[in-house]
Amino acid sequence: MTATRVLVLNSGSSSVKYQLLDMRDSSRLAVGLVERIGEANSRLVHTPPVDGGTGRRERSGPIADHEAALKAVADELTRDGLGLDSPELAAIGHRVVHGGLRFSDPTVVTDEVLAEIERLVPVAPLHNPANLTGIRTARALRPDLPQVAVFDTAFHTTMPEAAARYAIDVETADAHRIRRYGFHGTSHAYVSRATAALLGRDPSEVNVIVLHLGNGASASAVAGGRCVETSMGLTPLEGLVMGTRSGDIDPAVTFHLERVAGMSTDEIDALLNKRSGLVGLCGDNDMREIHRRMEEGDERAGLAFDIYVHRLKKYIGAYYAVLGRVDAVAFTAGVGENAAPVREAALAGLEGLGLTVDSGLNAVRSGEARLISPGGARVAVAVVPTDEELEIARQTFELVK
Length: 401
What we know:
single chain, alpha/beta, 8-stranded mixed sheet, 6-stranded mixed sheet, 15 helices, 38% helix, globular
């Protein structure tokens, strides 16, 4: 029997998201989430392939750690005849946020690979430790099975040095691995390729600006299938305005807050990552709620929306200049796929660049990839639902099959 299934694990600090896919047709056999790991009110939600998801199961109660969480996941899969001991399981693919410069491709996990991921913890302190825990636990459960790390940063390793380097002392930068790495790479890879398919063209022929707009948000300029610029940097803090992150800011703001407000490094870090962005501007990081408040005349919500769109429009223009020729702009992720006002406002006034939105097409809600630009538009504008789990599964399976 040929093994064609891939289990995708996305291990967070207190959660595990998972999907089991059959790579013969990319179908999902099971989807689930374990959240609040380590708390008394942990919860597991598991959706098996029964009647379009009507067989969804939930269980609550303490789940002590990631090992217990993955064992609970294995139990749920076994109930559906999809256990981790199945000979049809080809590999387990793991999302790893930071791979530095060394990992530009999906990589079979070895002790040496684990050690390198651990060495990158200082530049991804919130993510890499949790990713490591998930990998180690999965290896203990199935030591005979290939474990594959797929890195958020990998797609961006093709950036030229002019885009990746910060203009600081080279020796200091190299000694401390300070450069722009970028994130959301699996999403940008998937969406840029899916956009080319939507246009009926090969990715190598297409230049795309991808706008991944969720609670975390990033932009990328993709030339012929290769990333040449992206908005996030050493960490996921740089770039666009996000749900709780500031995005671009004068670095001297941190010195000012330390000297004038007496804030510590940790306090400033928490401010910029957790109490800034949309939530810092208006108290909400849900674009639906912000839009509702705008319709009621809420000025703070309106200003937050304007700042968000202004930053987004700046990046679209900048990446148009970087690429020289743009074939498509693709919106993706929670806000990008669902917030029609954001898409329309971000491109308003850019008609001279060939960018325009058909208001009727833009208003249509759909889970399918689609064009929202008028027929004959010089630059296609698309909404392309991202599928990071499928991208991780595809890269994992290609590596081990």
